[in-house]
Design a protein that fits this description.
This protein is α+β, with helices and mostly antiparallel strands and 165 residues long. The protein folds into two domains: 59 residues, no CATH class; 82 residues, Orthogonal Bundle (Arc Repressor Mutant, subunit A), CATH 1.10.10. It has six helices and five strands; from the N terminus they run H-E-E-E-H-H-E-H-H-E-H. A three-stranded antiparallel sheet has the order 1-2-3, covered by helices on one side. It has a two-stranded parallel sheet with strand order 4-5. The longest helix is centred in the middle third of the chain and has 15 residues.
Length: 165
C-alpha cells in the first residue's frame, strides 16, 4: 500500500482525476479535506460521515454544479469565516480576484489570499474560484506554476467551465 502510514490519518480517500482527496472526520463533523497526489491509494470510509462525504465528492467530480451538504468543524478566525463566506458565494463557472474579494469584505488582497490558503474544506468552500488579477495566483499556500496544487486548481476551474487558466 502506498503511503500507508499517512493513509491512517484519513477517514477515507477518494480517487480524483488529479490524484486523490483525503477526508478527515471527527466527532460527527468534517474536520478537513486534503488534496493528495496519486501516490495515495483509495481508502474505504471508516464511518458514516466519511461515507457521505466521499459520495458527495464523487458526485461533484462528475457534476460540477453539485452542492455540498456536510457538517463542518468549527475552525478558523472570524476574519477567515468572512472570507470563506464571500468565497462560498462565488457561482460555479465564475472567478473573483483576491482584490475583488478584499474590496467586497473591506480588507486587503494578501489577507484574503492567506485566508484562502487556510481553508480546511476545499471544494465545499471553493477557494479555487479566487485568482490573482494577472493569472492563476496561488493555491493551498503553494504557488509553483508547475506544481501539484496549481494543477489541481487548473483542473477544478476547467471542470467548472472556467477557461483561460
Amino acid at each position: 500500500m502506498k503511503n500507508s502510514q499517512a493513509t491512517e490519518f484519513f477517514s477515507s480517500i477518494v480517487e480524483a482525476p488529479f490524484g486523490a482527496i483525503g477526508i478527515r472526520t471527527e466527532a460527527g463533523v468534517l474536520r478537513e479535506l486534503v488534496y493528495l497526489p496519486s501516490t495515495f491509494d483509495e481508502k474505504s470510509p471508516t464511518d458514516q460521515l466519511a461515507e457521505v462525504a466521499a459520495r458527495q465528492i464523487e458526485r461533484y467530480l462528475v457534476e460540477p454544479d453539485f452542492c455540498f451538504d456536510l457538517p463542518l468543524a468549527e475552525v478558523g478566525t472570524a476574519f477567515q469565516h468572512k472570507v470563506w463566506a464571500a468565497i462560498a458565494s462565488i457561482p460555479r463557472g465564475e472567478v473573483r480576484t483576491y482584490g475583488q474579494v478584499a474590496k467586497h469584505i473591506q480588507s486587503a488582497p494578501r489577507a484574503v489570499g492567506q485566508a484562502c490558503g487556510a481553508n480546511w474544506f476545499p471544494l465545499v468552500i471553493p477557494c479555487h474560484r479566487v485568482t490573482a488579477s494577472g493569472g492563476l495566483g496561488g493555491f493551498s499556500h503553494h504557488d509553483d506554476e508547475t506544481g501539484f496544487h496549481l494543477g489541481v486548481k487548473r483542473w477544478l476551474l476547467g471542470h467548472e467551465g472556467v477557461e483561460g487558466y
